[in-house]
Amino acid sequence: MLLTPVVFLIFNRPSLTARVFERIRQAQPRQLLIVADGPRANRAGEAELCAQTRAIVERIDWACDVQCNYADTNLGCKRRIASGLDWVFATVEDAIILEDDCLPDPTFFRFCEEMLERYRHDERIMGIGGANYQFGQRRGANQTDSYYFSRFCHIWGWASWRRSWQLYDVEMKLWPEVKRLGWLNDIIMNDAIAAQWGRMFDRVVAGELDTWDCQWAFATWVHAKLGIVPNGNLISNIGFGAQATHTNTRGVRPPLTANLPTPAMTFPLQHPNYVIRDKAADDFTDFVQKDTLSWLERAWLRLKKVLS
User: Fold this and answer.
1) Domains in the chain, please, with CATH?
2) pLDDT digits (tens, 9 = 90+) for 105-138
């Protein structure tokens, strides 16, 4: 049985929810906190889909303390997830968090639980991510290490503590000052990538981008924190498609980070000797996530995806 509480963020996709919930069921967490958004009034049939989705996660067949935080009306991605996680971290000290389209390898849960305990009081660490976008490249000073440190705290399957969530500000009130002083360039150390993130932060603050995760990245950076990234991908995002909010491909080929394989983590974990950010890994992640990649760059990365 998993001792760490698990949080499941759901909405209106019962088929995807069922796949991820099955992995949670296999892990058998002692405590499960479910956060659900409500249906949009102008979407025919969505109320039924939301009800079907909630019914799936209520099929608990193991000893588990289940708590639900369901919205009656639609709050949107930004408000629902932010308010839901406010509730979560007011309830528990730490948690493993999955959205309905983030399919974890079974070893993801043990990895997060061990990392949460090891770095519980190390305030340099913001959180633990399950995703890895290195396409098979091992990172860190020792290539046999189980994980490395990053300025990214990936949220396609992640874990963190109340102490970290207390640094989160959904409104990003510090962004205008950080932007004015040019500090984002100092943090990222790449003008083009800083400009890309700056445009997203502008849209979030202006209310044009309904999201919560840009604010998490911002909080990580302005408080000079690090994320933990496994040296192998543990999460496959299976949600790219017409029903998605932010991963809606609308007939366009899914990005390179979609549907990645999830090789199992090996235990016992081998820990790095140093808590130092791996700049080469972060630069590669920036490269993968750039708004525009040449056809040659994309072809090369797709080949690496196949081979990894």
Assistant:
1) 1-100 (3.40.50), 104-153+169-308 (no CATH)
2) 999 999 999 999 999 999 999 999 999 999 889 9
